[in-house]
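User: Here's a structure from my thesis project, written as structure tokens. My advisor, Dr. K., wants to see whether a designed sequence matches the one we expressed. Can you design one independently, without my sequence as a hint?
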């Protein structure tokens, strides 16, 4: 069986690269005595989560309740919903989930925490929560000056059990310079650890000190006081991680197989992977780090210069030759976004398809 049997566009996952990425991250965490709770946002499959669990992950991180429900139904019983849960519809779903599996979530607002507590009390459960801190990304999270009153308020709520503090140090994606990135990552994790100590000094029970972001993970994992890490992207890596210098392209496990469907002229061609498959992402948080829409594997003479929904526009150098029907592989800019666009990924070993995985938790937007 060859890849000719796989119709395009198709997501390919390189089995041995995937295994290596999972193994190396598990080893890094073990060496430093940190618990690993990977974020499934990157792969959204059950098979990869099982491999992560088999290699020592203590549980999983998700962003959406729908993702937590998919994983709970598949037997994953320790889930952190690392996203503020707001509104009665979601509170009811979270309470139902908390009756079935060990689930925890994050809070950054006293009013939302009170509603969370009331919903849990009504359902007869007590929910573990982490305080989500804003240490520089300015997305979600409580600001430094307001952490202590929020922590005291959460600790007093009957439906919640304050367990710790967490951050997502995602601003490191905006730092292409490795020394700068290391400094930003370390500063944010040090703020996290210092906050944990301050809260403990006030008698609050802070056992979990959790951070997570692939580009700076190796830079911060040795910081004393950190207990848990939640990297996501590391299972696949992608063109963004390569552009940041986090890994070489050879570590990337996910690619998109695509077919040339038209030769528009001497300097351009069209492939069947467009924005619907590859997404328009050119760098995390809208930073536009990347000039193109993916890298063509092994073809420096061809650039993926723009995308419309079903068409990828290739810009060819003068020497490039490319015919209709030829197949190319694209290293996507942002693996997590691509995975959410399709139903299945083809598992490849030694350039041969050896299986297919459902992207079981794709499209879970609530
Ligand atoms: N934790 C949270 C809350 C996140 O939002 C993310 C990514 O968006 C992660 C962890 C994992 O980050 P990365 O994919 O950079 O490893």
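Assistant: Designed independently from the structure alone:
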């Amino acid at each position: 069986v060859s890849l000719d049997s796989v119709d395009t566009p198709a997501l390919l996952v390189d089995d041995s690269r995937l295994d290596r990425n999972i193994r190396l991250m598990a080893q890094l965490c073990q060496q430093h005595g940190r618990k690993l709770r990977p974020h499934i946002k990157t792969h959204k499959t059950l098979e990869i989560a099982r491999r992560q669990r088999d290699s020592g992950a203590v549980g999983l991180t998700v962003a959406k309740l729908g993702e937590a429900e998919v994983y709970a139904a598949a037997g994953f019983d320790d889930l952190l919903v690392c996203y503020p849960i707001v509104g009665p519809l979601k509170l009811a779903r979270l309470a139902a989930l908390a009756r079935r599996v060990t689930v925890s979530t994050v809070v950054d607002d006293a009013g939302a925490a009170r509603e969370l507590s009331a919903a849990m009390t009504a359902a007869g459960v007590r929910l573990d929560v982490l305080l989500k801190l804003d240490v520089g990304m300015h997305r979600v999270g409580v600001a430094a000056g307001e952490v202590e009153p929020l922590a005291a308020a959460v600790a007093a709520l009957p439906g919640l059990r304050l367990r710790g503090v967490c951050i997502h140090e995602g601003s490191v994606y905006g730092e292409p310079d490795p020394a700068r990135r290391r400094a930003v990552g370390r500063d944010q994790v040090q703020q996290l650890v210092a906050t944990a100590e301050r809260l403990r000094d006030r008698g609050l029970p802070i056992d979990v000190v959790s951070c997570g972001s692939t580009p700076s993970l190796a830079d911060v994992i040795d910081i004393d006081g950190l207990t848990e890490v939640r990297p996501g992207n590391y299972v696949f890596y992608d063109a963004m991680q390569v552009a940041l210098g986090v890994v070489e392209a050879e570590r990337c496990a996910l690619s998109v197989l695509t077919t040339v469907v038209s030769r528009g002229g001497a300097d351009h061609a069209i492939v069947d992977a467009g924005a619907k498959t590859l997404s328009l992402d050119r760098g995390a948080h809208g930073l536009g780090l990347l000039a193109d829409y993916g890298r063509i594997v092994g073809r420096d003479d061809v650039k993926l210069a723009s995308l419309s929904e079903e068409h990828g526009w290739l810009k060819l150098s003068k020497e490039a030759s490319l015919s209709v029907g030829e197949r190319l592989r694209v290293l996507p800019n942002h693996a997590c976004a691509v995975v959410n666009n399709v139903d299945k990924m083809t598992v490849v070993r030694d350039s041969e398809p050896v299986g297919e995985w459902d992207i079981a938790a794709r499209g879970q937007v609530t």
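When you compare it with your expressed construct, this may help: The first helix runs from residue 15 to 31.
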